[in-house]
Write a structure and sequence with these properties.
This protein has helices at residues 46-51, 55-58, 60-111. Helix content is 55%, strand content 0%. It is mainly alpha-helical.
């Protein structure tokens, strides 16, 4: 991987320390942000094809990790909601039993 930082966490925030963009008229890309630090690599051959990586390809593992963590967070939220629902139902049953017990005690006190 040739890019040291990522889009979300760049190595530096100083724009003068970022590598300048080098685009020719035919290789201008609208998918990459302007001012990004990835150099434009144009080599030919098997070695060149391995080196010709775009910023999107370099950031695929980061995007996959971000999506995986988002899914894990969603699963954790769903699990917490399920636990809260079970606890609420348990408390409701307990409150109903206490209410019934109090009603019976009141009825017994009135009868005597």
């Amino acid at each position: 991987m040739t890019a040291l930082g990522t889009i979300d966490r760049p190595v530096t925030h100083d724009p003068q320390k970022l590598a300048p963009m080098t685009f020719s008229a035919s290789t201008t890309s609208t998918s990459e942000p302007s001012g990004s630090a990835a150099p434009a690599v144009t080599t030919i051959g098997a070695y060149g094809s391995r080196q010709n990586r775009t910023r999107e390809m370099q950031l695929i593992p980061e995007a996959m990790a971000r999506a995986h963590m988002h899914e894990r967070m969603r699963e954790a939220d769903a699990e917490r909601q399920a636990v809260r629902l079970v606890a609420a139902r348990r408390m409701q049953r307990r409150a109903e039993r206490v209410s019934l017990r109090a009603r019976r005690a009141l009825a017994m006190a009135v009868m005597n």
